[in-house]
Design goal:
alpha+beta; single chain; 3-stranded antiparallel beta sheet; about 25% strand; about 40% helix
Amino acid sequence: MKVFITKYALTKGILEFEVTEKDDMVSVGGNFLHNFHGEGKEWHRSINEARIRAEQMRLNKISQLKKQIQKLEKLKL
């Protein structure tokens, strides 16, 4: 089955793999097995679902960084 991995979307982009599925987890690889948990969080069945999740992750990261910037601007040394 082909799936789209978004666990590392902000650093490596959306990855596409052929996987084996068991319950809510998919496994990638031979000697070095990688497991991804949570359909809709770390992996998706369609590229559109993966793009939506990656965009949510991007917006969340921007929000976190803005809060961090505000905190640093208020900091007095």
